[in-house]
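Subject: Predicted fold for Alpha/beta hydrolase, 285 residues

User T.R. writes:
Posting the sequence so we have a shared reference for the thread.
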Amino acid sequence: MNMHDKPVASYIEAPTNTVTANGVTFVYRELGPKGGIPVVFFVHLAATLDYWDPRIVDAIAKDRHVITFDQRGVGASTGEVPDSIEAMADDAYAFITALGFDQINVFSFSLGGMIAQALIAEHPDLVRRLVLTGTGPKGGKDIDKVAGVTYLDILRATLTRSDPREFLFFNRDAAGKLAAKAYVERTTGARTEGRDAPMKTKGFQTQLKAIKQYGRGEPHDLSKFTQPTLIANGDHDRMVPSVLSEDLHRRISGSELVIYPNSGHGGIFQYHQDFAPVAAEFLNR
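User M.O. replies:
I've generated the structure tokens; pasting them so everyone works from the same file.
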């Protein structure tokens, strides 16, 4: 094995590649050992490739092939953001099949978890193991209020010149504020070269509309989800209420639920030291 075959071990160093499917050029990064069923990461609202927490990505990539990607119209991926979660799931399917995979594992957060559920509803055999974090089911109570909370916190962040995620993902107590700063530093301060293109405001607004529609939509039959599923959140999620994680857990047979104390939407990032090994072990089973 020469030096060039050595798998990339850290997300910060993962090069950005492209693949074209359905007329869209998707950008993606990969790391970890090739072979086996990869873990595809589905990113959150208004996020690009650069928004993943390397502490979680790297922990999972230690033993598995990890792929992160930008949906249509997000970051440097071409095209316009679709106006429905189902259309986003179709794009994800096109991306996955373009890379030549007929089975994947999924790690998802927030909006990404909604897209993952729509993907499985459409292609039940595609996903071997599923991780749903900070997310909720289609038709879930108060998902349609996400936009209101988001706009309010963006305003609060603008007024205090901070990153909106500090308000949206973390409690505003001492521990939460500290975790928020550390998380923002890990996700924005780490990679200096080859950064992704920023999210466009129009695309972000379209994503919010799609989430609202999903919140008011006809629920999926989650009793048909047969893959082992790990569900995680903080106990005080203001964006996608924590009770929706419990709802998912009740409806997905045999699923495991982890709720972190005194934390919000970004509970898995606040408790990354606890969560990363749990997620890695689950995906390695």
